[in-house]
C-alpha cells in the first residue's frame, strides 16, 4: 500500500458572510501559501469545500478555518490518500454554497434533526422509517443505502419539484442523506416547510457514516468530487449495485466519458473502457475532441499556464508561494 501522507477534507458551514468576495481572496491566498488544492465555494450563506494536501498542511488549513468565529462549528470529514486529489486550487464566490432553488432557506434557523451515523444506523430499518437519497442520478446509481428511495434528478436544484411524489409518506419518519451532509441541510428544511413533520438527516453524510459506522448497508460505492471519482464505504457487507453503461455487467468503476462534449459520469467496466478508449459509446469514441484514455476515466482540466494569483487583488510574497507550490 502506498504511503498515505495526504489528507482529503470534505466540509461545509452555513454561516453569514457579509463580504464573500473579500473573504474569498483571503481564503484563496491562504490555500496557495499552504499548498492546499481543491474546490471551495464562498457565498453570503457560508462556505463549502473539498480539498487535499499534506497532512500537516491540512491541519493548518482546518485550524485556519475554525479560527474564524463564523466557522468555528465546521466539521471536517477526513480521508487519507497517497497524493493530492486535485491539480490546483479554485476558490470561487457564488450565490449559494450548493446550487439549489432553495435560497430562501436558512438551515441555521430550521432544518431536519441531525442524526449521528450510529443513530442513523439504529433508526433506518424501523417500520415507520423512510430513507431518502437527495443526490443526483449518477450518484445514487453507483451506490445508495439499502431500501432507500431515490429521486430522478439530474441536479439538486430539481429536488423541490420531486417532493410532491413523496406526499404519501408524510406520516413516516423521513431520514435524508447525501455525500457529506450539505444538501440535506436544505432538503430536510424544505420537507418541513412542505408539511412533513418528522424529518431527520444523516449528519456528515455517507462519508462520515463510512468512517464511524463502517458503512453497513450502504450498497455500492460513493461518488466523490475529486480525482478518485468513487470510494469504498462499506466494510461490513459490501456489494456492487451498478452496471456497466456499455455491456450491463456488474461494475462500480466510475468513468467520465472521454468525449468532453459528452462527459457523462457512468460506470464502465475495465474491458469496455479499453475497447471504447474511455468513451461511453462508439459515437463518443469517434468524436474528434476525444481525450486520451489512461485507464482511470478521470480527466483533469489543463493546468498549463495556471496562475494562482488569478482573481487576487493583492500580490503576496511570490517567492514564498513559488516554494509552497513545489
TrEMBL record:
Superkingdom as given in the UniProt entry: Bacteria
Signal peptide: none
GO molecular function: oxidoreductase activity, acting on paired donors, with incorporation or reduction of molecular oxygen; transferase activity
Coiled coil: none
InterPro entries, sorted: Rhodanese-like_dom, Rhodanese-like_dom_sf, Rhodanese_C, TrhO, TRHO_N
Protein function: Catalyzes oxygen-dependent 5-hydroxyuridine (ho5U) modification at position 34 in tRNAs.
Protein name: tRNA uridine(34) hydroxylase
Organism of derivation: Anditalea andensis
Origin organism lineage: Bacteria, Pseudomonadati, Bacteroidota, Cytophagia, Cytophagales
Gene that this sequence comes from: trhO
